[in-house]
Write a structure and sequence with these properties.
By secondary structure, the chain is of the alpha+beta class. It has one domain: Jelly Rolls (Sandwich), CATH 2.60.120.330. The protein has seven helices and eleven strands. Strands 1-9-6-11-4-2-3 form a seven-stranded antiparallel beta sheet. The radius of gyration is 16 Å and the shape is globular. The chain starts with a strand and ends with a helix. Bound molecules: fe (ii) ion. The site of fe (ii) ion (FE2) has 4 residues, from loops.
C-alpha cells in the first residue's frame, strides 16, 4: 500500500461539474503563472484557479504571492457553482478547519505533468485532495510507491511533498479537481500516518 495516497471516499457526483467545464472551455488557461514558469513541470497542463490568494495581490507584490495568505473565491467559482458543494462536503468529511486553494487541472491526451514536489507555504500548510472529474482508462497519477488509476468521483488524499507526476495515456482530456484543506491535527495525523 502506498504511503503517499489514500482513497477516502468514492461516488461523488462530478458529472454536473464535468458538463459545466465542457460548456465553458474558455475558463481554462486564464491564469498561467504556474504553467508559464521556466522549466515548469506543468507546461502541458491548463488550469482554472477557483480559489487562492486574491489575484490583485499578484500585481501588488508578485514575490509574496505564494507566501502565507487567506484564500478567496475567484470569479471562476461563480461560473462553476458545481464546485462549492463538493468542497463543502469534503471540508466536513475531513474535519477541515481552513480552506485553501481550489484548482481544476486539464491535461490533453498524451500529455504529462513531469515528476515534481509541490513547494512553498501553501503546499506545506494544507493537505491536498484529488477528485478526478474526467479520467478515462490510461490517465494515471503516479508516485514512486504506487499509481492511482481512479474512477471519476473518487476522492484521494495525497502527499504532495513526495515526487508525483501525471501521464495521460487516454484518448480524452484528464480533468482533476484539487482541493487544499487544513484539518484538525488529529485528522491530519490519521490521514498522513494512520495506514500501515
Ligand atoms: Fe503537484
Amino acid at each position: 500500500m502506498s504511503r503517499n495516497f489514500l482513497k477516502i471516499a468514492q461516488d461523488i457526483n462530478v458529472q454536473p461539474l464535468q458538463m459545466a467545464l465542457i460548456r465553458q472551455p474558455e475558463l481554462f488557461g486564464n491564469r498561467t503563472s504556474r504553467s508559464d514558469a521556466y522549466a515548469s513541470p506543468h507546461q502541458q497542463m491548463t488550469d482554472i484557479w477557483v480559489r487562492y490568494n486574491a489575484y490583485e495581490n499578484l500585481k501588488r507584490d508578485p514575490e509574496k504571492f505564494n507566501d502565507e495568505h487567506d484564500s478567496v473565491w475567484y470569479p471562476e467559482a461563480t461560473a462553476l457553482p458545481q464546485v462549492r458543494p463538493i468542497v463543502s462536503w469534503l471540508m466536513s468529511h475531513v474535519e477541515g478547519e481552513r480552506l485553501g486553494g481550489v484548482l481544476i487541472t486539464k491535461i490533453p491526451p498524451g500529455g504529462k505533468i513531469a515528476p515534481h514536489v509541490d513547494m512553498g507555504w501553501h503546499a506545506k500548510y494544507y493537505e491536498k485532495y484529488y477528485i478526478p472529474v474526467q479520467n478515462d482508462q490510461g490517465a494515471l497519477f503516479c508516485f514512486e510507491d504506487g499509481i492511482i488509476e481512479p474512477q471519476p468521483g473518487d476522492v484521494y488524499w495525497f502527499n504532495n511533498s513526495r515526487p508525483h507526476w501525471v501521464e495521460n495515456h487516454s484518448q480524452r482530456d484528464r480533468i482533476a479537481l484539487i482541493v487544499c484543506i487544513r484539518s484538525h491535527k488529529a485528522s491530519q495525523e490519521v490521514l498522513c500516518h494512520g495506514q500501515q
